């Protein structure tokens, strides 16, 4: 038996050395073990007490002397079995904590913001973020007012950049905007249309972890919400609308 073998069981260098010393010389008082190992008195006492706590050795007191001796050989097996039980408990606790962390994470929004813009600057903010971050996006509900308030030149320039960065989009427009079918780059933008008689004034844009709402009045109001869960919810809404819309 070697010191390294005992260290593999989880004993320290000092504990393993003292264990082997007791194996060689039998039950001994501290002074004899110090002479045998060359350890300092304080280190020897500490290591022996740790071995007692682990159940590998035991001690008896005779007068003013502490006598240390090995426990039964199976004590090493008992020690390892106890470590296995503790490790299993730690694993169970770790799994429970992992579940709790995952649950908490679902309810924590690492970065939540809401910004409100007045005028066309808000609309341009949306598409600047899309282009700069090269994000695919979804749009639904855009009314005819959108092409009146912001000139065609802006949208055409946007589409050029979209082609350059290979940004893809799906859009659901009111039927009044069917002419866009011939304007947008087909390779990167898929279009479908709603046939309802009413024409909504609100446009919804979904990109990254954000959802933007544009109210197309004479001076548009844009609200951009940064929230992963909200964005995912609106993606689901979009997908349902997409299935029911017409090409």
Question: Could you explain how this protein is built, in words?
Answer:
- The protein is rod-shaped and about 105 Å long.
- Helix 2 packs across helix 4.
- The strands form two sheets. The protein has a seven-stranded mixed beta sheet with strand order 4-10-9-8-5-6-7, sandwiched between helices.
- 23% of the residues are buried.
- Helix content is 49%, strand content 23%.
- A hairpin with a 2-residue loop joins strand 2 and strand 3.
- It folds into two domains: 74 residues, Winged helix-like DNA-binding domain superfamily/Winged helix DNA-binding domain (Arc Repressor Mutant, subunit A), CATH 1.10.10; 132 residues, Endonuclease Chain A (Endonuclease, Chain A, 2-Layer Sandwich).
- It is α+β, with helices and mostly antiparallel strands and 247 residues long.
- The chain is built from nine helices and ten strands.
- The model has no long low-confidence stretch (mean pLDDT 86).
């Amino acid at each position: 038996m070697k010191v390294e073998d005992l260290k593999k069981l989880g004993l320290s260098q000092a504990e393993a050395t003292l264990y082997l010393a007791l194996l060689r010389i039998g039950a001994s008082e501290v002074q004899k073990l110090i002479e045998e190992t060359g350890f300092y008195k304080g280190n020897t006492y500490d290591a022996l007490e740790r071995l007692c706590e682990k159940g590998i050795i035991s001690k008896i007191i005779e007068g003013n002397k502490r006598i240390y001796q090995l426990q039964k050989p199976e004590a090493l097996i008992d020690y390892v079995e106890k470590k296995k039980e503790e490790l299993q408990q730690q694993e169970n606790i770790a799994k429970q904590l992992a579940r709790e962390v995952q649950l908490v994470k679902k309810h924590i929004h690492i970065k939540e913001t809401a910004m409100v813009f007045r005028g066309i600057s808000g609309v341009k903010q949306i598409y600047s973020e899309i282009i700069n971050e090269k994000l695919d996006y979804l749009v639904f509900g855009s009314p005819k007012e959108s092409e009146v308030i912001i000139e065609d030149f802006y949208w055409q320039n946007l589409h050029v950049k979209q082609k350059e960065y290979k940004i893809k989009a799906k859009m659901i427009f009111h039927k009044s905007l069917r002419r866009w079918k011939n304007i947008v780059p087909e390779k990167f933008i898929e279009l479908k249309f709603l046939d309802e008689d009413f024409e909504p004034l609100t446009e919804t844009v979904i990109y990254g972890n954000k959802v933007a709402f544009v109210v197309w009045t004479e001076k548009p109001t844009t609200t951009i919400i940064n929230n992963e869960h909200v964005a995912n919810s609106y993606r689901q809404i979009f997908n349902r609308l997409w299935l029911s819309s017409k090409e």
